[in-house]
Amino acid sequence: MQWDIVIGLEIHVQLATKTKIFSGSSTAFGAEPNTQASAVDLAMPGTLPVPNEQAFRYAVMFGLAVNAEIGRRSVFDRKNYFYPDLPKGYQTTQLDHPIVGPGFVDIDLANGSSKRVRIHHAHLEEDAGKSLHEDFHGMTGIDLNRAGTPLIEIVTEPDMNSAEEAVAFAKKLHSLVSSIGICDGDMSQGSLRFDVNISLKPKGSDELGTRTETKNLNSFRFMEQAIAHEVERQMDILEDGGRIIQETRLYNGERDESRSMRSKEEANDYRYFPCPDLLPVVIDDAFIESARDLLPELPDERKARFMEQYSLNDYDARLLSDDAKLSAFFEAVAEHGKDAKLAANWVLGEFSARLNAEDKSVAQAPISGEQLGQLVARIADNTVSSSGAKKVLEALWNGDGDNADAIIDAQGLKQVSDTGALEAMVDEVLAGMPDQVAQYQQEADPKKQKKMLGGFMGPLMKASKGQGNPKLFNEILVRKLGG
Amino acid sequence: MHNKSVAELTRELESGKISSVELTREFLDRIKTEDQQYNSFITVTEDQAMADAKSADEQRAAGKASVWTGVPFAHKDIFCTNGVATTAGSKMLANFVPPYDSTVTANFRAAGAVCLGKTNMDEFAMGSSNESSFFGPVTNPWGLSAGEKRVPGGSSGGSAAAIAARLVPAATATDTGGSIRQPAALCGITGLKPTYGRVSRYGIIAFASSLDQGGTMARTAEDNALMLNVMAGFDPKDSTSANQAVPDYTATLNEPLKGLRVGLPKEYFSDQLSPAMEQQIRNAVKEYEKLGATVKEVSLPHAKLAIAAYYVIAPAEASANLSRFDGVRYGYRCESPQDLNDLYTRTRAEGFGDEVKRRILVGTYALSAGYFDAYYLKAQKVRRLIQQDFINAFKEVDVLMSPVSPSPAFVQGANTNDPVTMYLEDIFTIAVNLAGVPAMSVPAGFVDGLPVGLQIIGNYFEEARLLNAAHQFQQVTDWHQKLPQ
After folding, report:
1. B329–chain A Cβ distance below 8 A for any pair
2. Is B318 on the interface with A (CB under 8 A)?
3. DSSP three-state, residue A212
4. What is the per-residue burial (b if ≥16 Cβ within 10 Å, else e) of A321-345?
5. Using the beta-carbon criterion (under 8 Å), do B239 and A43 form an inter-chain contact?
6. Closest CA to A369 of A395, A401, A404
7. Per-residue pLDDT tens digits for B389-420
8. Residues on chain B touching A276 (C-beta within 8 angstroms)
9. Which of A261, A291, A321 is a domain's end point?
10. What residues make up the domain containing A231?
11. B383 and chain A in contact, CB less than 8 A
12. B239–A50: do the CB atoms touch at under 8 Å?
């Protein structure tokens, strides 16, 4: 049987506020346990929550970035359950009146098509603390530093139909929240956590199947694996005539295994009700406009601008616009390199390949956009060949010089573009290869002729000690052989 | 000195006739000798009080005194006090010492007042008789002479009894469904529940957050005004507190009452009220007519729904507010828990008393899936109707007057096995909390030798008008000066 895969995501995004959502404690990661937990975070008797305006501003910025309606009257609810790292015995969250209403994100797929994923809503809430089960000899340690860190929980519609689409959406969302500055984007510290809802239905059927939720995936790779794993698990059950149980599952990425955490029947009755300690927060036009003013250029806007301003094609423009840091790097290269298309090729080609090989981010690159731009300018004006330029980049990368011109000089990579000298070399090489010249001249197919030119290029580069301008050599060859 | 009001004590201190150290010593000695029969204090902070009195005298000598500098008083044990045990009348918090002050206690500290200790209360403010305290019941000073141990009302019964017994001239209190007004009435003193949001709730251990309000208790209306001057105001730590200017509540105490429009809600003069009680209330209203007030009957048509709505909303909020008492971070923890579930179950089974458990169960039930709409949402709709009743009434009149409680102080143990009868104690006070308006209890006579309280209800943020009305009444009556034998 053929199956359709249906995927919806819930994403917890830690907002990059300096202080917590309802207290003045710092949100910095990595402090000694419980040193960033105030009386409010500890839920001491009589303490009260005070909302952090910045968390609301960030949430509104997110809403604007995903083309969403902003909830003008934002209400907090209490979600009641007992757990040691939940100090109040309830989580303050939003149920019926979230701050961000329906919106959408367009994702680009590998086959060049694009797809719209709808956002159901996003709501503000507080994070819980952490339970530490190691190092306490059968006891549990509680660290409340994270308790009260502001989160937005983003809930999508079940609009994704493959692991590829889900991961593309996740990456797009990651790039979005990082580039608008509301989240540090550090997935290793849990700044973004993904829950994946998956169900299968017979191909073409309108009726959704029973779904499972796989919780707390904190890398794109695990997410892709977990989806593949869960799709296969469900497919096996369904094809054996079994039924999927609605449940929450945990995925172990190291072992590529999953296990049931709790079924629907075991789920808590959270007894949501409006939090009486917090009045509804009214979001007015002025607040929304002030949030809009803080939004930097969004990736989709930037892509359109790159196509317009630099005449880039759709594919290059997308690759260069997704990540704000790569975008900025490219623009520096283009500015100093004079030739935007060439700049794009070098940034997406040699530069990105080197980063990937060394598993580095753009910020960790050992060269600046200006340095690469100066090199691109020398390629554009024929001072250096592209093979010579690779040597220059190598030197820049390794810190053997910090300036393309100096390296070109020092390594003697300057191309010979003196036509007189080059013509003399061509004459000499052609004189030594009469059979090949005859073959070329007898060939009727211009394509084959073009191919045969390569046979002369090797000896020419040798004769010029690699410094002859290949473009000029080519022109001279065609002229002389044809004449 | 212990028979004097706060205003009088301030004048004594100003004139130098007595020092704060002497005054504080006198009240502490009275607590030591007298309070065994009332049990109105849970904690007496003698050393701290004497030290504060000494520094108050130094402040005064340096010419830096305000009205409250050196004046003794007490806090209900629901206000968190930095470094002083704060129990909320519960075994759950019997060992709890907060590392912070409530905004109210911080304000009194800044004003230079001398806190003598923390007064007894119903556990987590849940009760109308002060019998649910883990620290034992409080006995009403009234009725003791007849050999009867009567309740002081609740939940602020310790504060009310201590003031009636002249152990302190004033005390803070809180009121969620009548917890200031009913004990004030039963103990023959004056109490004020301000508008919801007028006094910060920061550091007041929560019972029902949308109803809880800190307020004042003293013998005179004037002293209540002096207290409210210290307590009222916006607090950035409480986002439900009102960002509204605070008047000097003593400035308008002497305004004449001529033309004051008094409304008598007919629903509050019903069968529940004994004829003897009703007579006292009507006599008090006559005094107001003599002072120039006009009186008419008004209606609060949804008043009869108040108790039912309250006993859904308050327990629902309480069920969540009390979840934090789980034995994990502070407060009572059961011995050697076997696992997490055992820790929660036994800690809460052993740490909470019956009335608290009853309300947690009721609230949990009301919020459960499948019942939420029928109980919680319906109760919220009723609450809005009740608010509208008051808004409508205040289009016609300036204040409403009614009894505070259906009967005077009852004998201890009389209602302990009958929660519903106990809940009906608050039948005239609860609608005020649901609406959020301010109200006072003013001594207005006696039935069978036991005090009767007149309730005066005002429009939102019109505490000054209530205090003015109560003060003028106290200029022509002496019910508030009567001493229990």
Report:
1. yes
2. no
3. strand
4. bbbbebbebbbbbbebbbbbebbbb
5. no
6. A404
7. 999 999 999 999 999 999 999 999 988 788 88
8. 208-210, 240, 317
9. A291
10. 3-291
11. no
12. yes
